[in-house]
């Protein structure tokens, strides 16, 4: 999601990091079997002590985080949370999803209300340099786009001169759109809203000529409105690598979240799936797959978790391709830059060794 323009919570982030570092270590009984009493990560120890990962999400973003008809949170971001729970606790179901607005998401992470933020949140310099936060893993490469009604006859963002544009308040989508119109000598009128569902409803009601948001979200939104004749304009006016964000001050937790993301991609690269992971673990003679699945080396121990951590992730959540097919393919969202690097995309895993 677009970047907030306010940098008001820097001190909160620093304070949260200090509190996190000073948090008490749980007893050995509270850790995963076979691990030491402390993982050397205050956040991981706290997650283990409560047997629950608190994960901040949007909760209203189709394909990323949205409850299904049974109330189960579904989407790429939701499954990223589940993957971290599987790595940290051995059980992908041990997640509490905390829906957060764009305005509240960073405060919630800084204050420790959530352990992890996976909310269409972009990786930016100011978030890392000023808010006390770090991007641990990019789970989606995105960009800001515009959606219009098909009967408007607009085929390019440069045809929006004089348009009213729906925007989420408190995000730098406002700044990106303003910069784009200014750079192209165009005029527009912003119409601001507090939530994404409210913004979408206003756009459908005709309160604005166009809606600017992440292209992924607009694609998912269009798929849920097949009879509306919506058109996503071809321009992408920003580059938005989005993913899993943590607060600074706990490097071991950062490492675990980062390498959990790498597991999802490495598994797809190696052809390891939720369906064949158990058999691969028993029979593979490929050293890289053996390391990935925990039958060779001590990769889990290095991260403060069980050596079966990556096997738990893959067997319970799947690889990145499976997560994509489950959540985004049904909405017609093309993988594009999110293909594996071997297929011309940007997704690849660093060496798991």
Automatic annotation (TrEMBL):
- Indicate the secretion signal residues: 1-29
InterPro entries named in the record: Bact_solute-bind_prot3 (IPR051455), Solute-binding_3/MltF_N (IPR001638)
Answer yes or no on keyword Transferase: no
* Cross-referenced CDD domains: PBP2_BztA
Among its keywords, does the record have Signal? Answer: yes
- Start and end of every Solute-binding protein family 3/N-terminal domain? 52-280
* Keywords tagged on the record: Signal, Transport
> Do you know which Gene3D superfamilies this protein is assigned to?
Periplasmic binding protein-like II (3.40.190.10)
The chain's coiled-coil residues are none
A Pfam family hit: SBP_bac_3
Which PANTHER family does the record cross-reference, listed alphabetically? AMINO ACID ABC TRANSPORTER PERMEASE (PTHR30085), AMINO-ACID ABC TRANSPORTER-BINDING PROTEIN YHDW-RELATED (PTHR30085:SF7)
**Family listed:** Belongs to the bacterial solute-binding protein 3 family.
Q: Return the protein name.
A: Amino acid ABC transporter substrate-binding protein
**Organism (species):** Roseomonas populi
């Amino acid at each position: 999601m677009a970047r907030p323009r306010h940098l008001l919570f820097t001190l909160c982030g620093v304070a949260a990091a200090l509190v996190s570092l000073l948090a008490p270590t749980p007893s050995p009984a509270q850790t995963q079997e076979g691990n030491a009493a402390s993982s050397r990560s205050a956040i991981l120890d706290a997650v283990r002590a409560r047997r629950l990962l608190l994960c901040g999400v949007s909760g209203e973003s189709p394909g990323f985080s949205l409850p299904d008809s049974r109330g189960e949170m579904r989407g790429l971001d939701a499954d990223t949370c589940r993957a971290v729970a599987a790595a940290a606790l051995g059980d992908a179901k041990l997640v509490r999803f905390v829906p957060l607005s764009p305005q509240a998401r960073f405060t919630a992470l800084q204050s420790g209300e959530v352990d992890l933020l996976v909310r269409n949140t972009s990786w930016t310099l100011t978030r890392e340099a000023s808010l006390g936060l770090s991007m641990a893993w990019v789970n989606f490469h995105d960009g800001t786009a515009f959606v219009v009604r098909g009967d408007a006859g607009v085929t390019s963002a440069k045809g929006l001169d004089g348009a009213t544009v729906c925007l989420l308040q408190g995000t730098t989508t406002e700044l990106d759109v303003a910069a784009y119109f200014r750079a192209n000598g165009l005029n527009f009128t912003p119409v601001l809203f507090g939530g994404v569902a409210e913004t979408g409803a206003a756009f459908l009601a005709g309160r604005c000529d166009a809606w600017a948001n992440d292209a992924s979200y607009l694609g998912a939104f269009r798929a849920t409105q097949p009879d509306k004749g919506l058109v996503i304009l071809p321009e992408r006016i920003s580059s938005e690598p989005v993913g899993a964000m943590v607060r600074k001050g706990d490097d071991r937790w950062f490492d675990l979240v980062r390498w959990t993301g790498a597991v999802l991609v490495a598994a797809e690269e190696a052809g390891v799936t939720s369906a064949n992971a158990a058999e691969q673990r028993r029979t593979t003679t490929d050293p890289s797959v053996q390391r990935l699945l925990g039958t060779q080396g001590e990769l889990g121990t290095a991260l403060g978790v069980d050596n079966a951590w990556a096997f738990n992730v893959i067997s319970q959540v799947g690889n990145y391709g499976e997560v994509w097919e489950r959540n985004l393919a049904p909405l017609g969202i093309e993988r594009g830059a999110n293909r594996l690097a071997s297929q011309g995309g940007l997704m690849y895993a660093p060496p798991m060794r």
